[in-house]
Please model this.
Amino acid sequence: MTMERIIAVRNRKTIYRDGDKCIKVFDEGYSKADILNEALNQARVEETGLHIPRILEVTSVDGKWAIVSEFIKGKTLAQLMQENPDDTEKYLTMFVDLQLEMHQKTCPMLSKLKEKMNRKISQTELDATTRYDLHTRLESMPKHNKLCHGDFNPSNIIIAEDGTPYILDWSHATQGNASADAARTYLLFCLSGDMETAQKYLELFCKKSDTARQYVQKWMPIVAASQSVKGNANEQEFLLSWVNVVDYQ
Model:
């Protein structure tokens, strides 16, 4: 296996290109169960017919676990939006359309979103009263079984040279409520400091999906709390500031 160049360096993982293959190498000590679950998630999502890189193998590179998948030649949607700011609206429309296409799919073998969120909320350092309130809010939300990405943002979308959009990184994929997935995307835009795009995204998602804005907003404290477990100190502070927002305006 010849790793020609580094494509990206993310939290505790490095992504390389080897010809027509993409090799994601995980740091030593990374949970084997999480790595195998990520590969399994991606393999299951492949069966939905969405455009995603195909898993080729799970192997080891210099004693480290690695997931090998197809290399999709192109640029991320984040790169295109940065390079062509005048086309932001066009790219954002493409982004939301792709997310809605994904939400039309079901993947019954994936973990359930609400169960995962309940576990994450229990792992937070929030006081018992706040955790109880969040668990209660979560339980009251409608149960759906739509395919949810869990980290749907423009850097996880590759636009291939023929114009086909591919969705990357299925490590957080679950089945559940699409509005929770949208709330997560909104918060990701906010975390990047791009509040303007966050607002435009939310408006576009709600319009195209015919979803009440208030309904997506009801998910935000729940999603923020569940996501705060894995964030760095700055992200945790931002996300936890959302936990007590009941009626966001």
